Amino acid sequence: MTMKNDTLTIAVLPGDGIGREVMPACLELVNAATTMAGAPALAFQTHNAGAQYYAESGDALPASTLDACRKSDAILFGAMGWPDIRFPDGTEIIPQLDLRMELGLFAGVRPIRWFPGLPRVLTDPRAEQIDFVLVREQTEGLFYARGRGEIRNDEEAYDTMQITRSGTQRVTEFAFDIARQRKRRGKPGNVTCVDKANVFQSMAFFRKVFDEVADRHSDLTKDHAYVDALALNMVKKPWTFDVLVTENMFGDILSDLAAGLIGGMGMAPSADIGDKHGLFQPAHGTAPDIAGKGCANPSAMFLSAAMMLDWLAAKFGQPTLADAARLMEGAVEHTLSTKLAIPMEYGGNANCAEMTRSVISSLSAAR
Amino acid sequence: MTMKNDTLTIAVLPGDGIGREVMPACLELVNAATTMAGAPALAFQTHNAGAQYYAESGDALPASTLDACRKSDAILFGAMGWPDIRFPDGTEIIPQLDLRMELGLFAGVRPIRWFPGLPRVLTDPRAEQIDFVLVREQTEGLFYARGRGEIRNDEEAYDTMQITRSGTQRVTEFAFDIARQRKRRGKPGNVTCVDKANVFQSMAFFRKVFDEVADRHSDLTKDHAYVDALALNMVKKPWTFDVLVTENMFGDILSDLAAGLIGGMGMAPSADIGDKHGLFQPAHGTAPDIAGKGCANPSAMFLSAAMMLDWLAAKFGQPTLADAARLMEGAVEHTLSTKLAIPMEYGGNANCAEMTRSVISSLSAAR
Ligand SMILES: CC(C)[C@H](C(=O)O)[C@@H](O)C(=O)O
Ligand SMILES: CC(C)[C@H](C(=O)O)[C@@H](O)C(=O)O
């Protein structure tokens, strides 16, 4: 923990589609919450990146933006990518993957929690107790293959997955840290290693390194699950999960599935954390089908910003930022549980502006 | 279609754990159903394989069993593997993977259908319309890496995924065939290619070959989905799915998830189909936690055997075998929808013997 007296600078990357709609809403809420909590104001600096900017400039992630991200205290990210705008070779514009690699954002943190007031997806009433965190390794695994794949004679294609000891250690340590924080709040304090160690060497190695790390955390418990069985149990009994840690590709699939259990992407925040940097973005994409209509649900963006405030609070020893995060989360909860506003994706009619207004007006109730 | 006059021979591999419990129940039901349908009796020949047999003999998949599988007209498979019984190098005993490779069982067919009478897993009432088929490629993809993985200096591990043109063509053709059969029964006739073409060369290649095949089936439709988005939609709107085709590892994860949507492995049959051979097995494993107690739900085994009868009927031009399959499926449906017997895993108290008795006694109702 470092005390920091000057203003914290946030690199803001709204991106494309609904990213550009939920981001201004989010900044408004963060300003209101930090003010109410008596926390230091944050300096937001908006930067260009994404598919639309690529179409205008030929650059999807300008060096100046990347540089600003490196120098900032945290990165707030909307969503990027657009179906019709691609690189000349036909590949998609997904600067979020570049940022993960460039900034070493090795831990994809995806908290999954049911919010009272939302329609339940699973019939089992215990689904209301869903509260777990998926930690996705984000710098290697199958995604190591990105840009390295090989197609031979238009007949065979190969992609290689990489698991390193250091990569597995750091993400596993990270997962145990989260489990410890959660244990203080009465959670089980368990980390599940999700792999396919019964078939793949790399996954057996992942499990082995996980076990070595787990041995150093005797105050916490661990277990293992094969990814297929875990996917089944995620539908059957997700309320039994605490912290999960897994390989990049598995984590990509499981985090979307997990978001589905709590009603979809509209309520799923995420954080991409590295040793030095933290990037916070809703789990949803740019949603071309609804973009431009002002009807996106900004809740996941709000909750991602709350994760950012918590992270900044811990990093810079500024507890009032964590207070602001609690206010924001509480305001989202209050809005939904009192049905002050129901997002369109959950059958309500609150558009982005109305959701934002309701959440801001709920800040005082969350006090 | 080949007419065949001599008796069809079925290689029966009960395997381990509850495989040994559900298999005899299944053979009893198949005999009763074929008799009632006036279909030719099948000759069942039981063979050794699996973890328990490995513990006794040092051989998990004897050459004689493999040979018998090759010579048989179809293979009926229970479940194999056991936590405590492993090869000397610590790897698990999973002869099902060897059989897929040895016999070229390239298409893993996993029909997912909700059965009236079962508790619904999803709150949305449209979940009662769930009826799709997942086709998992089973001879390459990430599983190509099995036995080929590499660990370097206990620091890095690598596994390589392979996608071939021929492998993708055959499994895609297979998926379009299924879609065509389903279209005759009033289904949409659509095949969804599930991939991660936005990140991986191999997956872009998979999609490209899929598209080439799709172009040859202008009577049917196609679409694409990224595997993460598909996992989300599998929870959000699985009733919109028709036929899905995907890579081996993705298919492994998604088929377990899909089974979860209809209440778990107890109702999920599967078929592993190749150019020459067909292997039919419940999607569940050996269930060490309940094995030996006689309480396993044999329904998935029954439904897998019904898939076998359909496949034999088409292959050998014996429509009465398909009649027997309809009787078996109808009897399972009747048992569940009338609550004649409720499997323990769905909160009832019917053990394996009681379920079997009820299903057999329901054959006449299914007529
Ligand atoms: C956009 C896409 C490449 C990305 C990924 O696969 O990581 C996304 O799905 C995510 O989860 O952040
Ligand atoms: C037993 C295991 C190796 C196997 C697989 O991963 O293919 C199983 O999960 C399956 O789906 O048949």
From TrEMBL, chains A, B:
- Tell me the route in metabolism or biology where this protein functions: Amino-acid biosynthesis; L-leucine biosynthesis; L-leucine from 3-methyl-2-oxobutanoate: step 3/4
- Matching InterPro entries: IsoCit/isopropylmalate_DH_CS (IPR019818), IsoPropMal-DH-like_dom (IPR024084), Isopropylmalate_DH (IPR004429)
| Domain Isopropylmalate dehydrogenase-like span(s) in chain numbering | 9-359
Provide the GO biological process annotations: L-leucine biosynthetic process
For the keyword Ion transport, the answer is no
Q: What is its EC number?
A: 1.1.1.85
Keywords recorded for this protein, A-Z: Amino-acid biosynthesis, Branched-chain amino acid biosynthesis, Leucine biosynthesis, Magnesium, Manganese, Metal-binding, NAD, Oxidoreductase
Enzyme kind, highest EC tier: oxidoreductase
Q: Which GO terms describe its molecular function?
A: 3-isopropylmalate dehydrogenase activity; magnesium ion binding; NAD binding
**UniProt xrefs under Gene3D superfamilies:** Isopropylmalate Dehydrogenase (3.40.718.10)
Its GO CC terms are: cytosol
The chemistry this enzyme catalyses reads: (2R,3S)-3-isopropylmalate + NAD(+) = 4-methyl-2-oxopentanoate + CO2 + NADH
Per its UniProt record, the required cofactor names are: Mg(2+); Mn(2+)
Subunit notes for this chain?
Homodimer.
The name on file for this protein is 3-isopropylmalate dehydrogenase
